[in-house]
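Section 3.1: Structural characterization of target chains.
Under the original work plan, the team committed to producing a structural model for every single-chain target entering the pipeline before any wet-lab resources were allocated. The record below documents one such target. The sequence was received from the expression subgroup and is listed exactly as submitted; it comprises 273 residues.
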Amino acid sequence: MTRAVIAIPLVLSLVAICLSSPPQRKYRPSNRPTQPLVKATADQVTQDAELAQTDPVAFLERCIATCQAEVRGYRCTLEKRERIGRTLKPRERLRVAFQERPFSVLMRWEEGGGMASASLYVDGERKNQLLVMPAGVFLSRLGPLTKSLSSPDVVSTSRYSIPEFGIERGMQRTLSAFRRAKDAGTLNVYYEGIRPVPEAGNRLCHVLRREVNPPEEQGLTRVITYIDVATRLQVSSRLTAGNDLVGEYHFRDIELNPVFAPNQFTPEALKRP
């Protein structure tokens, strides 16, 4: 079941302004603009909104197809907070460099991170193990440490493993959950229209709220998904179990398809400030 709670025509003028001018950020401003690859027109935004309202599964499929066709990598800021087991972890803010092939992720913590200041994973290298730069002046002098993805101190830091990282993979998880619920006859998605999302740099986003009944893993009862109207990328999501936060993930300052330096995904990159 889907339902629109905001009239689509009322937001088209706002959409047109957003698509023709740089976004105005009120949330941790930076000079790193998102560069949309999708040259979305008002008509296309309307079509996306109508599809999100009438068939959210098909809408997500369209968004993922765009991502797969257009996105090869990006730099971004990721802000997240997660509940691991029964513990709600502190908020983290990271600068991330990501490329799809070979699958490579470089993360550098600006806030949070615990005992790590940076990490690097490249599929197929170092026996698919993680390189971690310890936090602190003394420990960082020891250089990066090699960690198995299945080691307890790695598993306990996030709800998702490094190979599960990425905007597209987050969209795939959302789509898989929608499909399972649809097959079970329990898909309840409410399209809440288009609005700016401060946590995503005030990008205009399609907002889809899914009420989860019966609850899913970690007692999950509600998922709110935010899809950027210009790029069709899932830039924010918030998962709750009743009144308790399960996880929230916000991508902003997204630079799509940058030209990475040859040493971007090497141990040397872990040492750079």
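The first helix runs from residue 12 to 20.
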